[in-house]
Structures are given as structure tokens and as C-alpha cells.
Write a structure and sequence with these properties.
A two-stranded antiparallel ribbon has the order 1-2. With 219 residues, the protein is mainly alpha-helical. The longest helix is centred in the middle third of the chain and has 22 residues, at 82-103. The chain folds into two domains: 12-77, Orthogonal Bundle (Arc Repressor Mutant, subunit A); 82-216, Up-down Bundle (Four Helix Bundle (Hemerythrin (Met), subunit A)). Helix 5 runs antiparallel to helix 8. The protein contains nine helices and two strands, in the order αααββαααααα. The model is unreliable at 1-11 and 214-219 (pLDDT under 50). Helices cover 70% and strands 4% of the residues.
């Protein structure tokens, strides 16, 4: 068959990243439960793609600890391991502390306003019990200082380990959500005031305060 000229190639990077995000989010939001087997053929059919980007996404998810891959055998959603979550929490907390310390005094008024708007939506979602919307608003709020810093190494670390925390955090949102609204407001006020040390300390505490009870493991 003749090949049409001047046809732009499919951006495989975007496809690969989109498949990864879809599978990651399905694990984080509980669509795929711990211990559930993930078959690349079924996932490819579900997403309407070939098996190749699905297999690549599963490898990335394995590197993040969200799935356990046994070559030639099976891939399953990982159990929630308390110590793994705590280790990820400590690393991510340090990354957000660094980002906030470096960008305080440099964030635009528009960025600060966006953080306040995200926290308002976060508070509304917590009040209504909308966990998905709350997590999305929370992620948006914390992404603003990280994006402003522009440190790709720091962003890569957060991208790798944040989903482990989000999955565990989702289980405790009714407990921790309202307190987080106040912590967010304190963080934003300190950033707006140019208090880099204080803002960085609060940013660390927001992430490091996440705790997972032993009874919540492997669920």
C-alpha cells in the first residue's frame, strides 16, 4: 500500500507515558487491588493499544514497587508494605522540602494563587468525601513548587515514589484530610511571606506526617 507523504509519526513517548499513567492511577485508586494478576493482553485490549507499551509500563510500575513482576510467569499488584511506604514517604518528603526551600521568594503571585485555589478545591473535596478529587487537588498544589524549581532529577524521584504514598494515603483520607487543609494554608502563607526555612519545614512535615497502621498492610 502507498504510504501517505508528510504524515507525522505517532509520538511513542506520549503513548508510553499515557499507558503508564492509566495503569498507575488504576492501581492507586484501587481499581486493581493488591494481589490481582495483571495480564498484558487484557490490559492492552482495555486501553486499546498494543502489548508493547503495556509491557513497558508494567516494567516501570515494577521499578516503582506498585507491581511484582515474575518474568515468564505473572505480574501482580503489590501488597501495601508498611516499611516500603515509610521509606518512600521519607524520600518524597525530603524532595518537597528541598523544592519549597529553593523556590520560596521566587514563586509568582499567580503560582501562589493557584496553590490557594487547589487547597480550596481540596478542602471542598474532603468535606464532601470525594477522595479522588481531594487527591488530585492535593497533587496539583504540591506540584506547583516542584514544577517551578525545574529540577528534573528531583521530579524523577517524586514520580517514582509518590504513587506508593498516594495509594496508602487514599486509605486514610477521612482521617488526615481536614488537618491537611490547615497545613496547606500554613505552607502557602509562609511561601508568600518569603520564609524559606519555615515553608520548607512545613512541606516536609506535611509528607512525613503520613502514617500507615500495621492493620492496613496487605490490603
Amino acid at each position: 500500500m502507498p504510504i501517505p507523504p508528510n504524515t507525522p509519526a505517532v509520538d511513542r513517548t506520549l503513548l508510553r507515558d499515557d499507558v503508564y499513567r492509566r495503569l498507575r492511577d488504576a492501581i492507586v485508586d484501587g481499581t486493581f487491588r493488591p494481589g490481582e494478576q495483571l495480564k498484558d493482553g487484557d490490559l492492552a485490549a482495555w486501553l486499546g493499544v498494543s502489548r508493547t507499551p503495556v509491557r513497558e509500563a508494567l516494567l516501570r510500575l515494577a521499578a516503582s514497587g506498585l507491581v511484582v513482576a515474575l518474568p515468564g510467569r505473572s505480574t501482580t499488584v503489590s501488597a501495601i508494605d508498611i516499611q516500603v511506604v515509610r521509606d518512600a514517604r521519607d524520600v518524597v518528603a525530603a524532595m518537597h522540602e528541598l523544592a519549597v526551600r529553593e523556590v520560596t521568594g521566587r514563586l509568582s503571585e499567580q503560582d501562589v494563587d493557584r496553590m490557594r485555589d487547589a487547597n480550596r478545591r481540596f478542602a471542598g473535596a474532603v468535606a464532601s468525601g470525594d477522595v479522588k478529587a481531594a487527591l488530585e487537588a492535593d497533587e496539583e498544589l504540591h506540584r506547583i513548587p516542584v514544577a517551578a524549581l525545574g529540577n528534573q532529577a528531583l521530579e524523577a524521584v517524586i514520580e517514582r515514589f509518590d504513587p506508593l504514598i498516594r495509594r496508602a494515603e487514599r486509605m486514610r483520607f477521612g482521617v488526615d484530610g481536614r488537618a491537611s487543609v490547615n497545613r496547606h494554608e500554613q505552607l502557602i502563607n509562609l511561601i508568600e511571606a518569603g520564609d524559606a526555612k519555615g515553608a520548607a519545614s512545613v512541606a516536609f512535615d506535611i509528607w512525613h506526617s503520613l502514617s500507615i497502621d500495621d492493620t492496613e498492610a496487605d490490603t
